[in-house]
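Quick entry between incubations.
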Amino acid sequence: MSIGFIGLGIMGGGMAANLLRKGFSPVVHNRTRAKADPLLAAGAVWADTPAALGRQVTTVITMLAHPEAVRAMALGAEGFLDHLPSGALWIDCSTVNPSFSRAMAAEAQRRGLRYLEAPVTGSKAAAAGGTLRFLVGGAPEDLDAARPLLEAMGRQIVHVGEVGMGSAAKIVNNLVLGQMMAAFAEGVVLGEALGLDRATLLDLLVEGPGGAPLLKLKRDRLAHDDFADPDFPLRWMHKDLHLAAQTAYEVGVALPVGHAAGEAYALAIRYGLGDDDFAAIYRFLARQIPHP
Amino acid sequence: MSIGFIGLGIMGGGMAANLLRKGFSPVVHNRTRAKADPLLAAGAVWADTPAALGRQVTTVITMLAHPEAVRAMALGAEGFLDHLPSGALWIDCSTVNPSFSRAMAAEAQRRGLRYLEAPVTGSKAAAAGGTLRFLVGGAPEDLDAARPLLEAMGRQIVHVGEVGMGSAAKIVNNLVLGQMMAAFAEGVVLGEALGLDRATLLDLLVEGPGGAPLLKLKRDRLAHDDFADPDFPLRWMHKDLHLAAQTAYEVGVALPVGHAAGEAYALAIRYGLGDDDFAAIYRFLARQIPHP
Amino acid sequence: MSIGFIGLGIMGGGMAANLLRKGFSPVVHNRTRAKADPLLAAGAVWADTPAALGRQVTTVITMLAHPEAVRAMALGAEGFLDHLPSGALWIDCSTVNPSFSRAMAAEAQRRGLRYLEAPVTGSKAAAAGGTLRFLVGGAPEDLDAARPLLEAMGRQIVHVGEVGMGSAAKIVNNLVLGQMMAAFAEGVVLGEALGLDRATLLDLLVEGPGGAPLLKLKRDRLAHDDFADPDFPLRWMHKDLHLAAQTAYEVGVALPVGHAAGEAYALAIRYGLGDDDFAAIYRFLARQIPHP
Amino acid sequence: MSIGFIGLGIMGGGMAANLLRKGFSPVVHNRTRAKADPLLAAGAVWADTPAALGRQVTTVITMLAHPEAVRAMALGAEGFLDHLPSGALWIDCSTVNPSFSRAMAAEAQRRGLRYLEAPVTGSKAAAAGGTLRFLVGGAPEDLDAARPLLEAMGRQIVHVGEVGMGSAAKIVNNLVLGQMMAAFAEGVVLGEALGLDRATLLDLLVEGPGGAPLLKLKRDRLAHDDFADPDFPLRWMHKDLHLAAQTAYEVGVALPVGHAAGEAYALAIRYGLGDDDFAAIYRFLARQIPHP
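Done. Structure below.
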């Protein structure tokens, strides 16, 4: 089995490194080549285009920022999908909306290819450490084929159902996390404005009934106002809340609170925080700018 | 030390029962007498009015639904505050806004009384089981005086700071929990509409990075669509989000997501769910009513 | 010039009738044939499919409910776009998002066809009375060719700019109107709850600084709780707010209030009001359902 | 009839000037004396405190920024209410919530005084030009007594009902206007981001079905990005939306869109726009700040 890996960003870089570490020799491609350097030094092979990559492998893994990027890599001018050999397997680990995932599965099937969606939970550290959780949608036999690869990159594989169900689970997960982070941020901003000590407040919240692992993970970022070197950039969370909104529209569901959270992130991006960790929603809410 | 206890609802009933169990003999009062019956059977003494209660005790504990109820019991026509002996201690366990709590402290002080705010986290089960957490604001010596009583009713006492800080911590806590519950509900409604099995989805969320104790507590309510016999009624959560909004206004903080959650609960109340557990925000969002 | 007209709903029916009245003899098509009957009685010609219509005309006008419907009629299995003669003109009067409109223009151009977007403001009565306003995007010479048709259906033609600008103006217009209607509804619900007489209140608002033509138009619906026989169905307004949200995401704009309005309409649809006039957002907010 | 006037800000200054112009000689008071200078030059008499003013007049008009300011002037340490002669008339033109207005009426009545609420619509220019509209709540005979004064300051007097109804109408009015302005701003921001010319867009909106007088009034501010010299400061609109929210809570009404608008204004205040005209909500949404 020859493996290709496309998308070497915050998440993909760590995932591909784990493949190498476990003995696989992936052919890799990324929009900007520089990000591939550490992997090439460790034995990965570079492909100049997705198409060139497609011609060399029987399994391709994609880990890209949003559906448009997936579409471009798979179906664009130099896309890989028309160049994979018949029967090849495409595993998309990107976070996309379910209807998009089903559309990609149809594109694959039309070309005699197999398709598995395997979006992940866990952020940068989990990608680097090989402890991701995969939420898989697709046929059991395709998952069986993919399992050694997924096990090399993560520690839990949940087969949620057919294609679309993995994306659904992922979208729902991030919808909840995006709102939770905003809730945590609003709570801390309000508490501080009322005179509570920030560290005391963070401890109270983290140890109380709302103390999700997410809050524990972000506690120190809020304590030290440190949102650089993001685990998960704020603009990605905004993108995922947008995918959730898009998906909710398609199925006739109202998300009054999720939309409010989404627009808070949208404003935070306009106010310069898009490339920070999504916990920077705290900074957006806490900040004050004097009247000119 | 003779003890009075006012407010024998979902929370207060359990708390007063624990006082009895630990050997205290409280004089009790409630707006409707019937709720006092089990306590009277167990040895508590009834007072017809807050004023009558005030004349019999040196410490009074209040556990009421909202600031207006506290004001009425303390300062209304038959309020207890003018009838307590000099130096008596008032411990208010109700959830109120910090500025209200400070106003009550001033009313007490003006009469030569001592005041402690001690709102709780933990809901009905914790009140009944004596495992509440108290978020205390007030003077250390007043907390020392109150400690035996609080220990009889809870298992953790956090001295947050001066009067106002306990309320602040409590308001912040519920602001976060109210949003988290709404986030959880929206996630489940969206996931089900996308075809995910509800139980699978609940497990994924509860075991994932958003898996706060609150979610674990509410999981089965969502699994079984069971919001009766509330741990914490939806209309109380709405009230607490309103107190948070009021407080945020006073200190110049914006809560764009908290307000959206608050209005979702407000709508849920209009649509008949106010007396259910606040997890019934799920039902509000999941429900569909056909066109007439 | 032979004319085709596709989409004979609330708006399209009136528009096609005006074409007939002004001496044009359109070939017409609609998903359900029954809606064409009055037009056929007045001299219009029926086409069984969009493709069949396309083969008979040199200009085609579409007035459909949403982008997906436009795509299906133009590019679906029996779509008209592959059947129009070279150089034919497609005038799309549907409300769609700008990026979709540009995509349709590209599809037309690829086939040697001309494309004009001409969404309208004004609702059912304006469509029936021939008093619509067209917000046109496209080439001036294509507008010149379309002008006699547009003048037969409306009384104002605004050439906003190139393709995409007409849709942009329309989306913005409905974003504003959707919010205004919600604002009006909230104001009336609050005023009534405070004891104001509804008619007095409506007059105050309609005659005050917020008294837009929209409010005057909807005044009597609110006065009489009458949302049947919609000028513009609530689910269409929800759709347009969704298009605005989608478009805002594409260009990096935050719409915190527009999203809140959109979700209020989304909830109203779930609670059975989607087929009523969009002023029924008042009913959604005013209604109370007793606790079971 | 000797007249007192308290509160000489953006609105009150113009109103008191009109009283002078029509031949009245008011005794005036303001928190900061400098604002009274032009009036004193024109013949008004200064009072050092509200109490001093109260002792000199039989009618007092108040025009203050919020309920707390009214309470302080009327009932504070040097408040006027205890110093008015029996049977004197207090006309409060401030925007306050209905429950507050009823509380003030009760305070007046308890002292043998008469009370009328007469909040206004129309902003700075209407105050200066004497073209305000008064929304009056109170007894008909009190309105009869007040009428000459109100006619000196405005051109329309609407007797809405008993005390509370005038405030209710005013709160509702501003709830609607606050949302409308936000809707207008969001529409313009989105349209510009889509490439529409701002002036064209403003004209389209102002001349379309949403073209309320408010939009016409604010058109040039948006055209020229000019929010200085406010007709109505943004922080007052935020305050009024807060009063609406508070009032809605008291009567069990949900305002999902109004709350979203309120929080947009709250954020705009944090980002330095509170002292600009409330049309500066456009600037808040249009602005972009680069990533540090």
